[in-house]
Amino acid sequence: MRKTRNKKVKMLKGEKFMYILILLALIAFPISTVFTKAVLSETNISLEQMKSKIETQEGINESLSMQVDELASLDKIQEVASEKGLTYNNDNIKNVE
Questions:
Q1: Where does residue 85 fall: left (phi above 0), alpha (psi -120 to 50 degrees), or beta otherwise?
Q2: How many CB atoms lie within 10 A of CB 78?
Q3: Each residue of 1-54: pLDDT tens digit?
Q4: Ramachandran region, residue 73 (left: φ > 0; alpha: ψ -120 to 50; beta: rest)
Q5: Where are any strands of DSSP class E within the chain?
Q6: SS3 89
Q7: H helices within 1-97, ranges in order?
Q8: Please, which residues have CB within 8 angstroms of residue 76's CB and are 6 or more apart in sequence?
Q9: What is the dihedral of CA 12, 17, 21, 22, to 10 degrees?
Q10: Which of 22-26, 64-68, 76-80 has the lowest mean pLDDT?
């Protein structure tokens, strides 16, 4: 009777390196995907906050623009002038050509 020997299969150095490289790739790919999506989500949140701030500031700017228009109207100017004791005299107006 013969005893059967189990032969050990030797791996080459290049083969070991390839297996390690594939294993690292299989581990790194899901981690990098999750990390990338987390960064993208954080960027989107920041973008939405910035859009909200911009909309708020645009509303404030519009309100201030309306106030400027209201204060610059001829009626308001005449009202302020009369409060300060100024009068409108058409004879004092000179046209320069």
A1: left
A2: 13
A3: 566 667 777 777 788 889 999 999 999 999 999 999 999 999 999 999 999 999
A4: beta
A5: none
A6: coil
A7: 13-71, 74-83
A8: 70
A9: 10
A10: 76-80
